[in-house]
Amino acid sequence: DSLQLLKSIQQARQEWLEAVANFDQADNDELIDYYIYRMKACQIRYNYLLKKAKEMGVRSELYDAQ
User: Which of 6, 20, 28, 64 reaches 20 to 30 Å from 51, CA-CA?
Assistant: First the structure.
């Protein structure tokens, strides 16, 4: 379902941005390591969902939704 995919993409993007913001605020090595891991995981998920949207042909809808 393309609508659900678009929602997932928006959620993944938001989670990625939150991880970046939290990384910027991290004040110890353990948190820094965690947010580096989290940013990478979010980025991989976000890129996967974008690729899936492109394969489904919902790319133009994706830009309209942002």
Answer: 20
